[in-house]
Write a structure and sequence with these properties.
It is built from 7 helices and 7 strands; from the N terminus they run βααβαβαβαβββαα. It is an alpha/beta fold. The protein has one domain: Aconitase, domain 4, CATH 3.20.19.10. It has a 7-stranded mixed beta sheet with strand order 4-3-2-1-5-6-7. Strand 3, helix 4 and strand 4 form a beta-alpha-beta unit. Helix 1 crosses helix 3.
Length: 171
């Protein structure tokens, strides 16, 4: 599986620096394991209609140190279930970045992204060009290139796919 360019609308912009993704579902819901119940809790304190307006392929945008806090998986599992295809942010918390890349969830660091997009703009992340383009208003910015390891993990759909691809056949 090769990493395909992402094209979708900016479904939400998290402007808070050091945004803790646990807030997406609420800390009280972090232990919910049923994905439908978890997705129903997602974004209720930000936009109660979020789930009904998001389309598959939409993207999230964040400020500096997006994902700050404990790297819990449920909030972004809920977002993927709703249809969110990836996240662009000014910068990411290292623990969050590593966890989501290992889950096969595309992330791109893009200094200046908050000045390039508004909610519901259509954008495209071009991995080969290391660029994000605002297709609604025009303009583009470079994204930080993925490391070889992160690219390989995303190409494989996550850590499990990556490790399975590295297995050597028995002699």
């Amino acid at each position: 599986m090769a990493l395909e360019n992402l094209r979708g609308r900016v479904a939400f912009i998290f402007e808070e620096i050091n945004f803790d993704v646990d807030q997406i579902v609420g800390v009280k819901n972090i232990k919910i394991t049923d994905i439908d119940e978890l997705a129903a809790a997602a974004m209720q304190s930000y936009d109660p209609d979020f789930r009904s307006v998001v389309r598959p392929g939409d993207l999230l945008v964040g400020a500096d140190n997006f994902g700050y806090g404990h790297p819990h998986y449920p909030p972004m599992r809920a977002m993927r279930h709703i249809g969110i295809a990836g996240v662009l942010a000014e910068s990411f918390s290292p623990g969050y970045w590593r966890g989501e890349i290992s889950m096969g969830f595309p992330q791109a660091t893009c200094p200046g992204i908050l000045g390039l997009v508004e909610r519901w703009d259509e954008i495209e992340i071009d991995w080969a060009a290391n660029e994000v383009r605002n297709l609604t208003k025009g303009g583009s910015l470079p994204i930080d290139p993925l490391s070889n390891a992160d690219r390989a993990m995303l190409d494989a759909g996550g850590l499990i796919g990556y490790l399975q691809g590295k297995r050597q056949p028995a002699a």
